[in-house]
Amino acid sequence: GAGVSQxxxxxxxxxGKYVELRCDPISGHTALYWYRQSxxxxxxxxxxxxxxxxxxxxxxxxxxFFAVRPEGSVSTLKIQRTERGDSAVYLCASSVxxxxxxQYFGPGTRLTVL
Amino acid sequence: xxxxxxxxxxxSVQEGRISIxxxxxxxxxxxxxxxxxxxxxxGPTFLISISSIKDKNEDGRFTVFLNKSxxxxxxxIVPSQPGDSAVYFCAAIKxxxxxKLIFGAGTRLAVHP
Lengths: 114, 113
Description:
B: mainly beta; 6-stranded mixed beta sheet
């Protein structure tokens, strides 16, 4: 079956611009997660959705970052006024149920802010 | 404040030998631990997990050992194969309402013929 997909695979933008990153979870998975991975580091938790609601957004670094999952399936991570420090690989994962159910990761979106 | 630490950034092992990857954690509230494997340009792939009520879990060539008193876990791969060459991440979580999976920085394993 289809795994987690993320689009775009690469995104290059200029400082100050707005970007949207999309995640399509595995069909039927109720839980969805966003992580950010910087070079040489492990994935860092950003936000966790259970269904349509953000059950835990404590990992979002500041109010420039926002994520939605309006119908409980596809999710969009939105970053306003991008900064060079936002450059990273943004990973999405989904699981059948809440933690600690196994999380299945997508290939990530590599964001570069010039 | 790194709660999960993988102190070896890289490891090189000969094919057929044992690979041992290590991980230390500081938060005694963690009660579930996982290993993920990552190939370039792909997302991490779940490998094996262990609950804190166990001290060993085995799945084929992969065995994870947990030493709660030392706050240490290790992943053993026997025998190592060239296809095992990847970055391995250790991760930990406190179950029961705490949602964050905390990852270490990873260890790059190279298995050479």
